[in-house]
């Protein structure tokens, strides 16, 4: 009489999957789903190219970030987007103001005390002054670096990069902010 050989690890005919096998299948399916979502985001440009975490929030730039050379000093409606060489601070100068986001910081965000949840990563200066808004902001697309010691001027605002962080100012009023990993100041 011929005997059937069974491969190790293969379920026997008519036998149900164990709880561990079902859990493994669920985990694999979830991982495949995450991979596909990341792949689609990468292909559509919705994911930061270096995979770094974005500060909380999702007000994104709908078009690719213009390079600093494309928009420096321009009165065009498009925002000027740049990052500090460290990549920890990303800024956007638009017709509405200058906004900067910081990924990692160690300061106590006292100007965001009334905010619920995580706050303190977003600073803004507009015509009405400088603030630490509760609403989050994220900037998408390729972000060129603004070398230390250089400035970007656009839409009536100037931001200057330094090894200590960034300073952005409304040119007409002189109001603005300074932002670094260890401290910030609204003025």
Features:
single chain, 187 residues, alpha+beta, 5-stranded antiparallel β-sheet, 2 helices, 10 strands, 16% helix, elongated
Describe this structure in words.
With 187 residues, the chain is an alpha+beta fold. The chain contains 2 helices and 10 strands; from the N terminus they run H-H-E-E-E-E-E-E-E-E-E-E. The strands form 2 sheets. A 5-stranded antiparallel β-sheet has the order 1-2-3-4-5. Strands 6-7-8-9-10 form a 5-stranded antiparallel β-sheet, with no helix packed on it. The longest helix is centred in the N-terminal third of the chain and has 26 residues, at 19-44. It is elongated. 28% of the residues are buried.
Give the N-terminus to C-terminus distance in angstroms: 92 Å
Overall structural class, as computed from helix and strand content, comes to alpha+beta
Strands side by side in the biggest sheet: 1-2-3-4-5
Give the low-pLDDT segments: 44-75
Number of helices: 2
Helix content: 10-25%
SSE string, helices as H and strands as E: HHEEEEEEEEEE
Percent strand equals 25-35%
At a glance:
The chain is of the alpha+beta class.
How are the elements arranged and paired?
Elements: H1 19-44, H2 68-71, E1 80-83, E2 89-94, E3 97-102, E4 122-126, E5 129-131, E6 151-154, E7 157-162, E8 165-170, E9 176-179, E10 184-186
Antiparallel strand pairs: 1-2, 2-3, 3-4, 4-5, 6-7, 7-8, 8-9, 9-10
